[in-house]
Amino acid sequence: MSSSQVLLFVIVGKNEPLYEAEFHKSGSAGSSDSVTRQNYFVLHSALDLVEKAAWTTNQMYLKVVDKVNQQQVSTFLTAGNIKFMLLHGGRSEDSIKNFFNDVYELYVKLSMNPFYRYDTPITSKSFDSRVRAVARRYLA
Amino acid sequence: MSRAPSNILDRPLGGRGRGSNSSTEAAVSQSAFAYLYSELVQYHQSRVASISELERRLESSGYGIGLKVLELLSYRSKESKRETRLMNVLQFVSANVWKSLFGKPADSLERSIDHADEFMIVDYEPLTSTYVSVPSDLGQLSVDAFLSGIVAGVLDGAGFSARVTAHSVTLEEGETSYGSSNSSLPPRRDKAVFLVKFSPEVLKRDTGLER
Asked: Given a cut of 90, is residue B51 above it in pLDDT?
């Protein structure tokens, strides 16, 4: 089943997604269109659950917020309430935690750029390549 | 001679896992900041027609800084925690934010008696107005509007939308600013009070969490 081979990572701001990336396990074929759309749907429908959970804890790492079929959605909230969400088919807590921490560091550095406005789409190519490198290191 | 510009994503953020050693943090001279700030104020002053417009512009200049300061300080504090309660986020602002921006925590944090949604942060020597003199025809202008913009940015980013305004309040009898760091200037006769008024839904959510 290709769903466990594809990881979907989305950074969501207050109104819209700010960054999206799909990570394919090396060697597997790319998934079909319908599976990809379903992934996005699952991830975005988990947003309500994230909102609800956000105010119950003061941790940044929210662990698994939603389980659909074999897929799980894990979330990380930054201090500015930017949501990092990862759709995966079951990965160890530690590797996901490390992944989120590294992406968090990249995000904070990106927001230090005076030309990057908070809560706007992230278009930096170097941010994209670094996130993919982090994903390859912890999730592949 | 030029060096290749380094990508901002490669530069170290400092703080996390290394212990905060203030001597390794980059410092900017106070006179450089005062000069830059006075130019900022003059820039906006020449483009507005009223005092409140000038204050609004200064506030929006500080807003973006508040958002970034929130993310940076939370990252550097090493523990992955966000503030979800109102009193905690105000403590965070008056202690951590003030300490990292001005080297000392805010002088006091008070809750208003008349309104449950108003709080006041008091600073006896705000950096922005130390080197600025306000002429009498500009009356009520407080150039600390820049700082209230920073506070508003921090609170908004954390999810506690608030209206923050800066007021210069004359010092009462017996209240003195503790040994002002700059003795070449005449002692200040007023303190800066930042009035924080939260939106109603923030209060509702916070009291809901109390149960």
From this structure: no
Beta-bridge partner residues of B108: B122
Distance from CA of B129 to the nearest CA of A (A): 24
CB contact under 8 A, A79 and B13: no
Q: Which of B27, B31, B32, B5 is nearest to B14 (CA)?
A: B27
Q: Is B197 helix (H, G, I), strand (E, B) or coil?
A: strand
Residue B189: DSSP 8-state? S
Query: The whole model's pTM is what?
Result: 0.86
From B79, B47, B80, B78, select the one nearest B61 (Cα to Cα): B47
The answer to whether A70 faces chain B, any CB pair under 8 Å, is no
ipTM of the complex: 0.84
Q: How far is A17 from chain B (nearest CA, A)?
A: 17
pLDDT digits (tens, 9 = 90+) for A22-80: 887 755 555 566 667 888 888 888 888 888 888 888 888 888 888 887 888 899 998 88
Measured from the Cβ of residue B142, the count of other Cβ atoms closer than 10 Å reads 26
Instruction: Confirm if A80 and B158 have CB atoms less than 8 A apart.
Output: yes
